[in-house]
Amino acid sequence: TETNVAEVFASTPDTQTARNPARVETALTGDPRARLTPRVAKFISRQSGLDLEELQRRADRKIKAFHLVTPWMAYALVAREQGLVMDDIAKALDVA
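Request: output the structure for the sequence above.
Response:
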């Protein structure tokens, strides 16, 4: 079944969850990595030297270009472009 954002907000009694896009994304996609997105973004920002706004801008461009890319994957693509060691990014995204 398809879930829309309005349903997630309506069914979420916790206002912190409703304000957190990563939690909404997790609820919509069922992807457990979505909740790690803010942490991964901060890690990539520190490692690459990009500020969070620039990192977000670049990730948004990836999402617009590839359409079916999740935010965490867009951040990983930016990290790769910046020459970061992808083993560290993969470990940060590990949900096992």
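Helices lie at 5-10, 15-19, 21-29, 37-48, 52-66, 71-81, 86-93.
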